[in-house]
Design brief:
2-enoyl-CoA Hydratase, Chain A, domain 1; six-stranded mixed beta sheet; 11 helices; globular; 2 domains; three-stranded mixed beta sheet; alpha/beta; about 250 residues
C-alpha cells in the first residue's frame, strides 16, 4: 500500500480494503494533497486483483467537511473557464470511486458536507453513525451545487425532495437519511458495521460481486430489456461454476 499524509489505505482479510480519510484537524476537507492522494489510492485499489470490497471511512468527528474553498474560489477576476477546470480536477477525487468494479461502502460517522456529501454518495452503500449529517449547503453561500450532487440526490431522494434540499441548502440527520433511503442503516460504530458487511460480501466469488453491481447500476438507469439482456449472460456465466451443478444435483434429489 502507498504512503500518504492525509489518508490511509489498509488491507483486511478476504479482499476487504479500507480507505480512511486521516486529516481530522482539517475535518478531512479535500485539499490539493488529499485530492491527489484519493485518486492515487483508488487507483491502487482498482489495480489490486485481490480487492473485493472497499470501505471508505474517516478519522475524527467529521466524515468530510467538503473541498478547500479558498483554493477553488479564492482570488478575484478569474475567468469561468479557469475556475471550471479547477473544479473538474477536484471532482475527480471522489468520482473515481464510481469507476470501481467492486462494491464500495461509506462509513459516515459525522458530517458529510458539500464535496464530502458527494464522496459518500459516490459509494454504493452508506452506513451512518448517530452523529452523521448529510449537508448540501451550497446555496447558503450563493454557490451552485457541483460534483454531481444534483444527480446523486435526485437519484436517491427523487426530484421533489432533492430540489427542496438543494434550494434550502439543507442537511439531513442520520435518521432522516435512513427514512429517505439515503443510507442503508444506522450503527453506533459505522466503520465496524461497514467492515462486517464488507466481509460478508467478500465471501462471494469476485466475478459475481462485479456482475451484480453492474446489473444494479444498469437497472438504475436503463430499461428492463437491457437489464434482462445483461442478466441472461451473467446468470449463464455464473452457472458454469461447479457449485451450481452441485446444488442443482442436491436439489434434484429432494
Amino acid at each position: 500500500m502507498g504512503e500518504w499524509t492525509t489518508i490511509r489505505l489498509t488491507s483486511e482479510d478476504d479482499g476487504v480494503r479500507v480507505l480512511t480519510l486521516a486529516d481530522p484537524d482539517r475535518r478531512n476537507a479535500i485539499g490539493t494533497v488529499m485530492r491527489e492522494e484519493l485518486i492515487a489510492a483508488v487507483g491502487e485499489v482498482r489495480a489490486d486483483p485481490a480487492a473485493r470490497v472497499l470501505v471508505v471511512a474517516a478519522e475524527g468527528t467529521s466524515f468530510c467537511a467538503g473541498a478547500d474553498l479558498p483554493a477553488l474560489f479564492g482570488g478575484q477576476g478569474r475567468p469561468v473557464g479557469e475556475i471550471r477546470a479547477g473544479l473538474r480536477a477536484y471532482y475527480e477525487s471522489f468520482l473515481v470511486l464510481r469507476d470501481l468494479e467492486i462494491p464500495t461502502i461509506a462509513a459516515v460517522q459525522g458530517p458529510a458536507v458539500g464535496a464530502g456529501l458527494n464522496l459518500a454518495l459516490c459509494c454504493d452503500v452508506r452506513i451512518a453513525g448517530p452523529n452523521a449529517r448529510f449537508a448540501a449547503t451550497f446555496s447558503r453561500i450563493g454557490l451552485h451545487p457541483g460534483g454531481g450532487c444534483t444527480y446523486f440526490l435526485t437519484r436517491e431522494l427523487g426530484a421533489q425532495r432533492a430540489l427542496a434540499l438543494l434550494l434550502e441548502g439543507g442537511r439531513l440527520t442520520a435518521e432522516e437519511a435512513l427514512e429517505r433511503g439515503l443510507v442503508l442503516s444506522i450503527a453506533d460504530d459505522p466503520a465496524a458495521a461497514a467492515l462486517e458487511l464488507a466481509r460478508s460480501w467478500a465471501g462471494l466469488r469476485p466475478g459475481l460481486l462485479r456482475d451484480i453491481k453492474l446489473a444494479v447500476r444498469l437497472a438504475a438507469r436503463g430499461d428492463l430489456e437491457s437489464v434482462i439482456e445483461y442478466e441472461s449472460w451473467a446468470q449463464a456465466e455464473s452457472a458454469t461454476y461447479p457449485e451450481i451443478a452441485e446444488f442443482a444435483a442436491r436439489f434434484g434429489k429432494r
